[in-house]
């Protein structure tokens, strides 16, 4: 999955958070091996994705567009989560012409659900480096040039990735 996320499945966000790369085997190891053995079974769940995006239709990926409500994901596969960033970014309040029509972080619980899925099942949570969600959820904000840094006390890791090239 690492090669995919850095190669052909590029995203527009500039940061990622994942479970510790060197963590000991989890109870899901046997589940993961079973899924990998079945060539037609998905190996990863892509949460909060575009219904016509690059994840849809790939046999190894169980895509969760808005119509499936990724907040309801309960495993067992690792995730690549792309929760909406509109309420966490620079214009969280709305446009400059109509400011303060929204409240910061009101994303319907999407970021919290994505973070929970990444913690429970492993995987990656992608969100803009400038997002206020990092601090809101007590995560170490990614910074360019630092490489992987400890994100939180739950064993997660954070890294800023330049995906503009």
Q: How would you describe what is shown here?
A:
It is a single chain. This protein has 165 residues and is of the alpha/beta class. The chain has a domain of 115 residues. It has 4 helices and 7 strands; from the N terminus they run αβαβββαβαββ. A 7-stranded mixed sheet has the order 3-2-4-5-1-7-6, covered by helices on one side.
Write a concise synopsis of the structure shown.
This protein is of the alpha/beta class and 165 residues long.
List the helices and strands and how they pair.
Layout: H1 2-6, E1 15-19, H2 29-37, E2 44-49, E3 61-65, E4 79-81, H3 110-121, E5 123-126, H4 133-136, E6 149-150, E7 156-160
Parallel strand pairs: 2-3, 2-4, 4-5
Antiparallel strand pairs: 1-5, 1-7, 6-7
| Number of contiguous helices | 4
- Beta-strand share of residues: 15-25%
Helix content: 10-25%
Number of strands: 7
Average pLDDT works out at: 76
Order of helices and strands: HEHEEEHEHEE
Radius of gyration: 16 Å
Main structural class: alpha/beta
Distance between the termini: 20 Å
Largest pleated sheet? 7 strands, mixed
Poorly predicted spans: 1-29
Which characteristics define this entry?
165 residues, alpha/beta, 4 helices, 18% helix, 18% strand, disordered N terminus
């Amino acid at each position: 999955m690492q090669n995919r996320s850095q190669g052909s499945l590029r995203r527009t966000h500039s940061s990622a958070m994942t479970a510790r790369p060197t963590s000991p085997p989890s109870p899901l190891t046997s589940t993961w091996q079973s899924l990998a053995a079945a060539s037609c079974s998905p190996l990863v769940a892509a949460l909060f994705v575009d219904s016509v995006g690059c994840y849809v239709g790939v046999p190894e990926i169980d895509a969760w567009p808005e119509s499936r409500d990724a907040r309801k994901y309960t495993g067992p596969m690792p995730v690549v989560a792309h929760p909406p960033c509109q309420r966490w970014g620079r214009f969280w309040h709305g446009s400059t012409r109509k400011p303060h029509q929204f409240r910061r972080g009101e994303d319907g619980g999407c970021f919290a659900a994505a973070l929970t899925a990444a913690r429970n099942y492993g995987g990656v949570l992608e969100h803009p480096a400038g997002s206020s969600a990092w601090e809101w959820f007590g995560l170490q904000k990614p910074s360019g040039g630092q490489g992987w840094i400890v994100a939180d006390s739950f064993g997660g890791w954070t890294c800023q990735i330049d995906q503009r090239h």
